[in-house]
Amino acid sequence: MSELPNPNLHPAVAESQVEVVRRDRRTELKVKIKSLAAEARLIRTEELRAKKCGDTHKLNSLHSHRVVVVREQARASLLCYAMLRGRPYSQLEARRNSTRPSKPFPFEKVVKMAKSFGLISVTGAHMQVTNWMNGKPVVAG
After folding, report:
1. Which residues pair with 22 in a beta bridge?
2. What CA–CA distance (Å, rounded) separates 23 from 6?
3. CB-based burial of residue 76 (10 Å sphere; 0-12 exposed, 13-18 middle, 19+ buried)?
4. Would you list the domain boundaries of the chain?
5. Residue range 70-83: average pLDDT?
6. Which end of the chain is more exposed for a tag (fewer CB within 10 A), N or C?
7. pLDDT (tens digit per residue) in 9-64
8. pLDDT of residue 105
9. By CB neighbour count within 10 A (0-12 exposed, 13-18 middle, 19+ buried), where does 93 fall?
């Protein structure tokens, strides 16, 4: 992640002249993944309570949030974490058969997380993720 430049610098100093320090934040990404898994478990528990009470509106709302929002964010986080660890994309997601269509790759979410949590170039993050999806290794820096 890029840290903000010194606010005491003169505004005329170009951003390229400011040394940007990036840290490897894979541990924080790992914590995010575990938090999303815990959130999904908690929502599932609340779904069961809502089902017992007969509150279908609450049940549907919780289920939708877990399946659409939390699951998609967890998938993007896991893909980004694997990319930053150097695992090839081809090992992660099995190709699905034609009877069950696959979900689209969460490209923008993975790029945003890679910029935030990784040591990859912020300006070349789109290209890095594209290269990783096509089987090329990710280059730090």
Report:
1. 2
2. 17
3. buried
4. 23-93+104-133
5. 94
6. C
7. 445 444 444 444 556 788 999 999 999 999 999 999 999 999 999 999 999 999 99
8. 86
9. middle
Within 10 angstroms of residue 118's Cβ, the number of other Cβ atoms is: 25
Asked if residues 32 and 127 have their Cβ atoms less than 8 Å apart, the reply is no
Provide DSSP, the chain: -BPPPPTTS-TTS-GGGSPPPB---HHHHHHHHHHHHHHHHHHHHHHHHHHHHT-HHHHHHHHHIIIIIIHHHHHHHHHHHHHHHT--GGGTSPPPPTTSPPPPP-HHHHHHHHHHHSSS-STTHHHHHHHHHTTPPP---
For residues 34 and 36, give the distance between their C-alpha atoms in angstroms, rounded to a whole number: 5
Cα three-residue angle 36-23-29, rounded to 5 degrees? 10
Name the residue type at position 55. Answer: D
Nearest Cα residue to 89 out of 135, 137, 124, 131: 135
Residues 106, 75 contacting (CB under 8 angstroms) = yes
Structure tokens at 58: 């609450």
Burial class (CB in 10 A: 0-12, 13-18, 19+), 128: buried
